[in-house]
Amino acid sequence: xxxxxxxxxxxxxxxxxxxxxxxSNQVHRAxxxxxxxxxxxxxxxxxxxxLHIEEMALKAREVTARFFGRNIALYTPLYIANHCVNECxxxxxxxxxxxxxxxxxxxxxxxxxxxxxxxxxxxxxLLTGESRVKSDVxxxxxxxxxxxxxxxxxxxxxxxxxxxxYRQIQQAGADYVSVYQETYDPDLYDRVHLSGPKKDYAxxxxxxxRALEAGFRxxxxxxxxxxxxxxxxxxxxxxxxxxxxRKYPQAEISxxxxxxxxxxxxEKNESHVGEAELAQVILALRLFMPWAGLSLSTRxxxxxxxxxxxxGITRLSAGVETGVGGHSGEGKGDEQFHKSDGRSVExxxxxxxxxxxxxxxxxxxxx
Length: 367
Ligand code: SF4
What we know:
Distance between the termini: 38 Å
Bound molecules: iron/sulfur cluster
Radius of gyration: 19 Å
Mean pLDDT: 94
Number of strands: 9
Order of helices and strands: HHHHHEHEHEHEHHHEHEHEHEHE
Helix content: 40-55%
Strand content: 5-15%
Strand order of the largest sheet: 1-2-3-4-5-6-7-8
Number of helices: 15
Shape: globular
C-alpha cells in the first residue's frame, strides 16, 4: 500500500464515528482543550455540539484573533473555461447540461486580469471545468503565467493532475491548489459522479498530496455540504487535512465549506444543510485546526458571510462571476452555480471594515 492509499484507509476509519452518542460533557471537555484531536472535531460536529454553538463561537472568536488578528483576505475566482467531461449530478458544468460553453483566449484572460486587478485585488483563483482536451495543461500554465503578472497570489481549481503536470503549473507561477473531494463516502461518490474520469475516487483523493510533492506551498480541502452526511464528510475532511499537515508541515492548509446551490437548468439543487449547521461546521474546523485558512464563498448570503467575520473565516471572495469571463464585459459562458452574494470588491471591503476587521488585499510577497 503506498502512502496515499494508506491515508485513504485512515480517513475511511473516521466513518464510523458515532455523532448521536456524543454528550454535553464531551463537548465541554473538547472546548476546554488547547489542542483538539480528531475525535474532538467529531464531538463539536455532533448534535450535542450544536447545542453549545454559542460557546463554540466565543472560543472561535478568541482563537481566530490569536492566529489571524482581525485580518480577512480578499480574492476572486476567474473561470477561464466551462467545458467538462464529467457528469456530476450537482454541478451546472456537467457535460449533459445544455449551457453556453466557452473558453477564454490568452488575450481575453489578460483583459479579465486587468479588469480584476483594477478593483485592487491581488489574489485570484483560476478555475476551469474538467476537460483535458479543451483546457490542457499548457493552456492552464499559460493562463497562470498571465495571472502571475497581475496578482501576487494565484490559486488553481482544475482537474487533478500528476506530479509533473502540477510542477509545470507551479513553475508557471501558481501558489496553491484546491481539489475538493466533494464527499468522502465512496459509495455516494460513485453514485453522484455518473460518468467521466472524476469517478476515480483515489486519484482525486491523492491530488493535494501530489501538488505538494510538486512544490506548491498550499492546498485546500473541502466537501460539498448537502451531498451526503455533512458531519461525516467534514470529519473526514479534517482527517485528510490533518494527515497531510503531519506529512508536509510546511504546507499552508486551508478549508472551504461549500454547500449545494441551484444551477442553470436545475433550480432545486438546494442543500439540506442549514445556515446554522454550516456555522457549526466553520466553528468546529476553526477550533480543530486554528492555523488553517478558511474560505466562505458567494454561495452564501451576504448577511450570513458578514455574520461569520471574526468567528473563524479568514478569506472572502468578492466581485464574483461564476460564468466564464464577465469581469471586463459580457460573460462568454454560463455559470457553474447561482451565487447568493453579488457584492463588489468595494462593498465587501466596507462590510469587513464595518465589523472592525482589516480587509487584506495582500499577505504574500513572491520572491
Ligand atoms: S463539479 Fe467539476 S468535474 Fe463535476 S461537472 Fe462541475 S466542473 Fe465538471
